[in-house]
Here is the input.
Amino acid sequence: MYQTIIIGGGPSGLMAAVAASNSTDKVLLLEKKKGLGRKLKISGGGRCNVTNRLPYAEIIQNIPGNGKFLYSPFSVFDNESIINFFESKGVKLKEEDHGRMFPVSNKAQDVVDTLVETIKNQHVTIKEEEAVTQIEVTPSHTFKVQTQNNTYESQSLVIATGGASVPQTGSTGDGYQFAESLGHSVTELFPTEVPITSNEPFIKSKELKGLSLKDVELSVLKKNGKKRISHQMDMIFTHFGISGPAALRCSQFVYKEQKNQKKTHIKMAIDTFPDYNHEQLKQTIRQLLTKQPDKAIKNSLHGLIEERYLLFMLKQSHIDVNITSHHLSNQQLNTLVDNFKGFTFEVNGTLPLDKAFVTGGGVSLKELHPKTMMSKLVPGLFLCGEVLDIHGYTGGYNITSALVTGHVAGLNAGNFVFQTQ
Ligand SMILES: Cc1cc2nc3c(=O)[nH]c(=O)nc-3n(C[C@H](O)[C@H](O)[C@H](O)COP(=O)(O)OP(=O)(O)OC[C@H]3O[C@@H](n4cnc5c(N)ncnc54)[C@H](O)[C@@H]3O)c2cc1C
Here is the structure.
């Protein structure tokens, strides 16, 4: 009989094992795959963006999927606790842009190794290639956990099976079924932090493929043309649509607007010069044109923006690229500025869940005690990490959520004693 069984050896399960084994040496970690922390190893491009140093309020803002739920677990274990944990184990971290924290070594493997060494030192029993198939609550309120080969029993159970994105890492969504089999509800799952697809002729022709735009404002538009969400960051055109940080952040809102508008094709807009208003941009362009009035417009505007995008914008504005500046009418100039400030195009969805960085939706948070991560329905059952209905933007927010909820779940599971009411 174990005190705590943890299902899943990702960041949430590993941190749960660290916290649980602080108070008991009867902890069992079951991992489906060979090797722990497979997704963690590839996170942050193999560098692992392990947490974020922004103030709470900003962290929460960057977790559009129920970030507010984390205020309570943060009061027990927060981003600074994560930093202290790794630095106390000898993994020095460094801060990059937007508060993003990485190991100084730039090796995600160091993060994984630290978690694994800690739980080994704290005598956690680790079983790899041991996929859980079924969970049962016994009449004596313990948990019977069935794998392909064995049955294990424990006083408390932590489900830390992750989401359903990038399933080759082991996160195949098993936890949703486990939670449902124990009476929990799972909200609709959808891909987030995922490239966006479009059938626009300029995408199909691949004329902009590989072109990246720096620091533009990308927006998802509502039915009435107003902006549902905007993100000012870099983006890139691909052979199927758009990607890059701004597109990844907008992706969940494409899904949500498709649902709201009840149609697959919705509109997005790119403002290439978000720091200028229409008039300022018009003046800037006019100045460039008057400097070289006899040159072709494509040459006099050289350097304003990446050349391929300039030519594309001229084409979209029905302006001959070889027209000389003094032949450009005021109306044509206004059209060009309008396109730079708000080029709208249609998108028809995103790549599927298995290609997403993160899974949106998950086990309903209404059924959990946020201070302990224990189920309100099944005493002794704890849930943490991406299996929950929490999802953040890229930037270390998802791993933060996994480590924080994992720590709180493990802490309370390790000390759990069933009490009759
Ligand atoms: C390519 C990529 C890069 C990313 N980069 C970042 C980043 O830099 N920063 C950031 O914050 N987030 C990043 N994310 C998201 C982040 O990695 C996840 O949110 C995080 O790993 C979730 O942790 P978790 O412990 O909940 O789940 P997971 O890491 O998915 O771990 C779940 C574990 O449970 C195991 N499991 C599943 N079912 C069973 C079962 N039936 N029996 C036993 N074990 C089971 C799985 O094998 C897996 O090991 C990235 C994601 C991807 C795909």
Remarks:
- Residues 175 and 301 are 55 Å apart (CA to CA).
- The chain has a mean pLDDT of 96.
- The two ends are 23 Å apart (CA to CA).
- Residues 7-13, 30-33, 38-40, 42-44, 48-49, 131-132, 160-162, 165-166, 170-172, 174, 357-358, 385-386, 394, 396-399, 402 surround flavin-adenine dinucleotide (CB under 6 Å).
